[in-house]
Amino acid sequence: MPAAEPFCPTCKAVQPPGQADHFVRLGFDRIYDLDPKTVETRYFELQRRLHPDRFAMKSPKERALSQAQATSLNEAYETLMDPLARAVYLLRLSGIETGGDGRTIDDPALLMEAMEMREALAEAQAPAAVDAVVGRARAEAETCRARLSRDFAAADLAAAKKDTLRLTYLDKLIEDARARRLNVA
Amino acid sequence: MTLLQLHEPGETPLPHEGDQELAVGIDLGTTNSVVAMSTSGKPEVLRDAEGRGLVPSVVAYASEGPVVGVEAQARLVDAPDSVVSSVKRLMGRGAADVKALAGTLPYKLDAAEGGMVRLLVGDKRLTPVEISAEILRAVKAQAEHHLGREVTRAVVTVPAYFDDAARLATKDAAKLAGLEVLRLVNEPTAAALAYGLDKEAEGVYAVYDLGGGTFDISILRLEKGVFQVLSTGGDAALGGDDFDHAIAEHWLADRQGELGREPITAGEVKQTLKSARAAKEALTTRAAGDFPVMLRGKTTLHRLTRETLDTLIRPWIDKTIRIARQVIDDARLDLAEIKGVVLVGGSTRVPQVRHAVEGLFGTKPLADIDPDEVVALGAALQAEALTVGSDTLLLDVLPLSLGLETMGGLTEKVIDRNTPIPVAKAQEFTTYQDGQGAMLIHVVQGEREAVADCRSLARFVLAGIPPMVAGAARIRVTFQVDADGLLTVSASEKTTGVEQRVEVKPSYGLSEDEMARMLEESMIHARTDMERRLLVENRVEARRVLLALEAALAADAGLLDAGEGDRIEEARRRLGAAIEGEDRDLIKAAVERLEEAARPFAERRMDRAIRAGLAGHSIDEFKGDPGGCLAPDPEDKS
């Protein structure tokens, strides 16, 4: 898919965001290993030119287009900055769905691990106990992200799917633990 | 064609090309409102003729029309029922929302069900939008008077925690007041802009904003001129007013016995609150004091010490600290990663608030800019950035999650809070009954699981779904949030190719008809507003003439002829009386009369000045306007 030029090369007017994927929009190849700093720099650079605040005194049509552009940029930024969202998105671009309702865990090892950690979290009564569960989950998530990097580099999409599901569950656990920690504190 | 246009003194000339760029920043506050304008990156508060920058956000509905600010405040004692304050707390609230608050609010609410809440003020039934528009008209007029030209564009600030309905209400109020809102900016962001953090600092900052009626805390990240709001939180009903209430209740408890069965009157409550406020302000610099409470016509003095004050207000301060911790946690940050904290809002002058903030962040807060003016100054900078251009970019986030009601009264989140805006997200839903032809879509905002605990924004029916078995229809609901944080929802049914779109306005917003009616009324208002402004300008001019004359008489009374002094005195007295009145033609006539009466005296002063000049002095030392100005130029060194 060709990169969508945000501005008309002739008249310099802002253009509709088009159908470019998130990688193209921020000028990257479709790879998993992205440097967050670079993603951010490119995002800031584009928002600087496309954000509706730059069009406050322009015509309603240009303002609407700039809003559409800024909306697409935000979506691309949110997706590419987060390792999990990035993995889910990369898989989707390859026709593999990992999200959606009614998803079940068909990996018995992951199922066991999930139940065990959920129990540990439910039993944690003090902030320190919650922190211990979170610490473990964070370390697991870190390993998971390193594995995802290898999976995508080796184009092993089956393994990538498995690790993505695992990371989905770990991120959710860490998120729930934050709420739990506030409750026990 | 008019080649030369003449204007009455003080009248605003028609806007010309250059004015297209003019835009002000307005902090529409719970307690006070402030207007500022920035030129070449230097923002300045636009003050009134008396040098006051804060316009109390108080509106009095007097027989001659609405009055705003200090004048309205003055009416609190005599006619408390016709005066509205703290109306910002009701912005975007529905009648049902405020039912729980009934009795605790200092105004009467209309009992009617549904729609936007309405206040009963005197014989009027008013929405918070109309009352806020009155405040905005007043600050607009103040800006116009200060600048001498028309102001039609503004950046208006809102608490970061304001939901969709409250933001829309603010924008509608500006529209009614004849202002185009270039952008709604979050107050904490505006404050950080005023401190120039976008230019100098890199890193993460917190903005702690405790105003009269709202508390906001925002975590901002600044990098390469980009302002990113990482997370934001607060309480739309927590502020310095609560401190006043705590103090007032403490005192009233002392005098409980005298009250008997007679309920305390609205006037007495307002009086006590006023005294409580004064006490709170006094104790920012003093350790203790005695303050009056008038009840049943009897005034008693009540002692308040810093220690008692601290105990009374601690629950609210503790709450702000709890919310602050939560918001830092939301941003996935540790306290240690926060480089600095900016203080905003008059209530941050309270020493205990400062201590608590310093205690939490472990660093001395930034507080050199007046905490009451800092937000307006930042808004002015943003107004300039939007009209003239700037390198700074404000990237905001959605303050509260947006979702839909699903089966069983549960919320399905469509956009999570703290998502960068503008944003658009779609969610697909399906029918749950065979042949279901319509679907109720209920849009809510908030973080809670149960719909009942969230803010209901809009309900609409998506009709015309073709008959299908349960679960076959694909209804796509799209949420679009713009850079101001305002939501548009549309829905369509996809399987049949028939697209149905419904645009929704929040249930607590104003209907098109209401808006049209109010705009029409504001046109009538605009005339009276203009009249009032001209009156104010004539008074200012008259006072200037009086002051000039006084100065001249004080300097050169010896130059007066016999009887001349009495004639001048008589004209002066008439002008003084005219200023007190409301008739601007009378004021103008009285000014002319006074100038006429004083003309021989002025001419003699002029003659003498010229003679002195011939005697070796420079004429410049005596410069003055022989036509009207009777006093030496205050800049004159002679």
Task: Explain the overall architecture.
- The complex is a heterodimer of chains A (185) and B (638).
- Chain A contains 7 helices and no strands.
- With 185 residues, chain A is an all-alpha fold.
- Chain A has 2 domains: 22-81, Helix Hairpins (Orthogonal Bundle), CATH 1.10.287; 108-184, HscB, C-terminal domain (Monooxygenase, Up-down Bundle), CATH 1.20.1280.
- Chain A is elongated and about 60 Å long.
- Chain B is an alpha+beta fold and 638 residues long.
- Chain B has 4 domains: 17-195 and 371-389, 2-Layer Sandwich (Nucleotidyltransferase, domain 5), CATH 3.30.420; 240-312, ATPase, substrate binding domain, subdomain 4 (Actin, Chain A, domain 4), CATH 3.90.640.10; 402-509, Substrate Binding Domain Of DNAk, Chain A, domain 1; 514-622, Substrate Binding Domain Of Dnak, Chain:A, Domain 2, CATH 1.20.1270.
- Chain B is 36% helix and 24% strand.
- Chain B has helices spanning 70-74, 128-147, 164-176, 187-194, 197-200, 240-254, 256-259, 266-282, 306-330, 351-361, 374-388, 512-556, 564-580, 584-614; strands at 24-28, 32-39, 42-45, 55-56, 58-62, 65-68, 83-85, 108-109, 119-121, 124-126, 153-158, 180-186, 203-210, 215-223, 226-235, 288-295, 298-305, 338-344, 393-395, 402-406, 410-415, 423-429, 439-445, 455-462, 475-481, 487-493.
- Mean pLDDT of chain B is 81; it is low at 1-19 and 617-638.
- The interface between A and B is medium-sized, with 18 and 25 residues.
Short description:
The complex is a heterodimer of chains A (185) and B (638). In chain A, 66% of the residues lie in helices and 0% in strands.
Specify the CATH homologous superfamily of the largest domain in chain B: ATPase, nucleotide binding domain
If helices are DSSP runs of H or I spanning 4 or more residues, what is the number of helices of chain B?
Answer: 14
Care to count the β-strands of chain A?
0
Biggest interface reads: A-B, 18 and 25 residues
Largest sheet of chain A: none
